[in-house]
């Protein structure tokens, strides 16, 4: 963004706006061409290296095989994407709904800071995913154990970043608020909350990356549907082409989740994004 | 009416036991209503500590502070404070940041629109009302913070080295703004600075603070004509004050 004293252009109407959007798109593609070229090059290399070295299909398929075989199985892949997506999104939302208020409470309560907080920090060292088999054993093959495992891997980034976010208002801003005589509630809405949001989103985004990982591993452990289940069955059947197709849809799922969180960040704290660009 | 500030055998010690740091005092000082008093002293002598105690944002270890005879016990809401690092928030425009001072006080900023505009014009920030802090230079941010500290029309102003991080030219121009404001409205101003010249130029009284634990052994009335423009700064009398104060710091072993 260019800083100048001139007023910003008014939003152009109709055709003007379309031309601008197309212009923007062309510019973005133009700016991304080295990456796109690399991307295309990578898959071409993969394709022809497999053919050239005669790697058998049950070890490593070519990208074109993955696409054609995956396409043939598309109804099941979409179905399972929905299953894994449901687990991830439910678990993620639950982790945020629980982690954010708990983080808030710990940030503002000296008592909790001395008891629960160090407990959380030490739990952070435990690889949460190691609990997955236990939850499967306790709760069976259904949706619930998967959601709980996703909650487990998403909760800590959300909670710990919220504690950090709400507990680190600068001395100067704290004093400024006190000098106005504002009560705790008004200070919270006007200053503490907006000041904390960027750090909260660091946690939200990190958790979004964890969500699909948690769901997939939970499905590896024990399930009869979902992309994790699909990948492990395909691998067992010596069908790496289908496993890759499953991985592709998992990637799409992860990207979609991360994209939604990034979009929310953009909408909620646009000032932070524009500041970060500098 | 601007307030007279009485500081009575005030001192501050941080911590307890062997780790205690005696930061400041004991100090007795009277700051007359409508005067411009500078606190001039080396780094770490307790200037910020004193400022926070005056504002009621930090408890004194001993002694007390009185505003027109009323003892300071809680944060005072009738003052304007400018800190070394400005208190602009990144999610609000310049205008919104100034309004924040009012909103935190439970005031509706709408009736103040005209006043905000006048303030911005007085520091040459008109045209930047809708900009965000990251779009401003350091000096412009500090000028916006200046408006933020003044919008609720405080009768007492506390400045803790607000110009510390600025370049010489910007400092000079904000000093001029500050002086003009003081001359027209005559608030009581307490101004912390490291710069001897700045203190002599702006103040009716300069308090020289000793190295930590800070004490005020010398208060010097600056008897120079107002406004203290370039002519005054070039006068022998001005140079004399600066020289004398340098002498005091040399005797303290600071210079
Ligand atoms: N919260 C605190 N805890 C312990 N010691 C403190 C605290 N705040 C300040 N001090 C000590 O008190 C002394 C005075 O600090 P203060 O910030 O008032 O100095 P200052 O004169 O404003 O310095 P400067 O010009 O560098 O800003 C310093 O020696 C500092 O170490
Ligand atoms: Mg200081």
From TrEMBL, chain B:
Highest taxon in the source lineage: Bacteria
Keyword set, alphabetical order: ATP-binding, Nucleotide-binding, Transport
ABC transporter domain sequence ranges: 5-236
Molecular function, one GO term: ATP binding
Xref: SMART domains: AAA
PROSITE patterns in the record: ABC_TRANSPORTER_1, ABC_TRANSPORTER_2
SUPFAM superfamilies cross-referenced by the UniProt entry: P-loop containing nucleoside triphosphate hydrolases (SSF52540)
Family according to the record: Belongs to the ABC transporter superfamily.
Name of the protein in its database record: NitT/TauT family transport system ATP-binding protein
The organism of origin for this protein: Ancylobacter tetraedralis
